[in-house]
Design goal:
It contains five helices and 17 strands. Bound molecules: 2-amino-4-trifluoromethylsulfanyl-butyric acid and cobalt (II) ion (CO) (2 copies). The site of one cobalt (II) ion has 6 residues, from loops.
């Protein structure tokens, strides 16, 4: 990787990214500097922005607002609630906390939150539609606080759920929990997808392919993509400082979808129910920390 031109001098910063001088670090320890795990390498080679502790703190603070928003929306949910009322609340609450709703005007998206009911997989646009007893509804929020993005969503029951609704919401929640559980340095993006796909398909459900988790933090959608399907050991290796979402969309029937004429609303092709949960994570030395930490252990 080092050309003659970029040869490291004894007094240069060590290429391993320790911050020490080369002569006091890998040169002294007779180690080949581990360049493939440095922020510089991840950026140049993979366009992945590894975050500093200060940046992680910024995302964590935006994440507090994500959890707060989702908690408060949950309290609003009832039959008869019009989905535009969720939008009005999220928009106003986000502003009043000094943040901006990332979805509003993002690539032409017209609202401040995504609200996806029943067979809507994601990117449902709030409107005149009223929730009714037995519906499931996903609410996805992404506030930008002091320039930092945190992204999270949850699927809620409206009134009393039937067995299908309970099943798909339970499988989607557990899919996120299992995907998160493999996150640690040395794991790969493929390990996350595999954990989710194995479980969800084992439950007779299917995993959406067209939408994936994503790097997040300084922008809404950063590298890398985090598919919710895949093969163990494949894909990018996780390293401390990576921040990304895991957000499996799981269908009760088949995984195929179509997008409505509004160019946003994604719907299951077979009309089956779809559910989703999303959190924003940072990879740590020990494993991971959720920056949108809501409870995923739910007794059904
Ligand atoms: N929040 C969604 C995600 O998890 C993205 C929504 S894009 C929007 O990635 F424009 F619809 F808001
Ligand atoms: Co997301
Ligand atoms: Co989201």
């Amino acid at each position: 990787m080092f050309s003659r031109k970029s040869r490291v001098g004894r007094n240069d910063p060590c290429p391993c990214g320790s911050g020490k001088k080369y002569k006091q670090c890998c040169l002294r320890n007779k180690k080949t500097p581990d360049v493939k795990h440095t922020p510089d390498y991840y950026l140049r080679r993979h366009q992945v922005i590894l975050k500093t502790p200060e940046q992680v703190e910024g995302i964590r603070r935006a994440g507090v607002l994500v959890v707060d928003l989702l908690d408060r929306v949950e309290q609003m949910i009832r039959p008869g609630l019009v989905t535009d009322e969720i939008n009005a609340f999220v928009d106003e609450y986000t502003r009043s906390h000094g943040a901006i709703s990332a979805p509003l005007n993002y690539r032409g998206y017209p609202k401040s939150v995504c609200v996806s009911v029943n067979e809507v997989i994601c990117h449902g646009i709030p409107g005149e539609w009223a929730l009714k007893d037995g519906d499931i509804v996903n609410v996805d929020v992404t506030p930008i606080l002091n320039g930092y993005y945190a992204d999270g969503n949850k699927t809620f029951f409206v009134g009393t759920p039937n067995a299908d609704a309970r099943k798909i919401v339970s499988v989607a929640r557990e899919s996120l929990r299992l995907g998160m559980s493999v996150v640690k340095p040395g794991s790969t993006v493929g390990d996350i997808g595999w954990a989710i796909q194995q479980y969800a398909e084992g439950q007779g459900c299917s995993v959406v392919r067209e939408y994936v988790g994503h790097g997040v933090g300084l922008k809404f959608h950063e590298r890398p993509d985090i598919p919710h399907y895949g093969h163990p050991g494949r894909g990018l290796e996780l390293v401390p400082g990576m921040t990304f979402t895991i957000e499996p969309m799981v269908n009760l029937g088949r995984h195929s979808l179509y997008v409505l004429d509004d160019d946003w609303t994604a719907v299951t092709e077979d009309g089956s129910l779809s559910a989703q949960f999303e959190q924003t994570l940072v990879v740590t030395d020990a494993g991971y920390e959720s920056l949108t930490p809501y409870d995923l252990e739910k007794s059904m």
